[in-house]
């Protein structure tokens, strides 16, 4: 996408370069109107007809070409890839989590049942775009360097756990990184609807409530038991590996669709 931004700058420079002579041409036409009215009327009619037939700006064609090039490159890069990648097929076959993914949205929801509990997880693919480049580490001489995980950038993930026969909800804010969920805090809401509702009003109400201590300030034994409690519910390493893989997969699909939409709009 950085290539596309560079191309936009080139296109913008081209449009500025083209815009200047267009102004001078308009001045010349105005002078012609004063000197030769009959010729100017004909020219005006021709210009009017031309503008109706060709309504696009001077940069539209170039921008459309650059978008087409980027679109072609992105499609060719995954031309030989299966329609559904292996990691996604295996995740669905496990039948533990249901994926709720709406095309065009940057948030993904995973839902599962555990006894009388409903566990809902949310994460956003926007974190991929905001992730900074990871520094490269070189192994010291004479020592074997450990391989870095393929997806080491952090992705914010939140969990809500509710019970069918009980009130309230447990909400957990985490950071998914390097195959693990790092817990930030764990909060309890006496009203399950307040804890799970995704509205501005509910968010405003939650801000005034006590959300619990920072997780790393809890007693170590309490931290360990909470982590075991979550792992038993499928919030484990396998899920932490799936989240960044699916984020990349979805982000790629959304980017290609964005290119198509923008190009179609420019060409219309």
Key descriptive features of the protein:
single chain; 6-stranded antiparallel β-sheet; alpha+beta; 268 residues; disordered N terminus; 9 helices
**In which range does the helix fraction lie?**
40-55%
Number of helices: 9
Average pLDDT across residues? 77
**What general outline do the C-alpha atoms trace?**
elongated
In the sheet with the most strands, the strands line up as: 1-2-3-4-5-6
Percent range for β-strand residues: 15-25%
Biggest β-sheet strands, sense, barrel:
6 strands, antiparallel
- Ends apart, CA distance between termini: 23 Å
Could you tell me the radius of gyration in angstroms?
28 Å
What's this model, at a glance?
Helices cover about 50% and strands about 20% of the residues. The chain has helices at about 1-35, 35-55, 60-75, 85-95, 125-130, 190-195, 200-205, 220-230, 235-265, and strands at about 100, 105-115, 115-125, 155-165, 170-175, 180-190.
What does this structure look like?
The protein is built from nine helices and six strands, in the order ααααβββαβββαααα. It has helices at 2-35, 37-53, 60-77, 86-94, 126-130, 192-196, 200-207, 220-232, 237-267, and strands spanning 98-101, 107-114, 117-124, 155-163, 169-177, 180-189. A six-stranded antiparallel sheet has the order 1-2-3-4-5-6. Helix 1 (2-35) runs antiparallel to helix 2, helix 1 (2-35) runs antiparallel to helix 3 and helix 3 packs antiparallel against helix 9 (237-267). The protein is elongated, with a radius of gyration of 28 Å. The two termini are 23 Å apart. The relative contact order is 0.11.
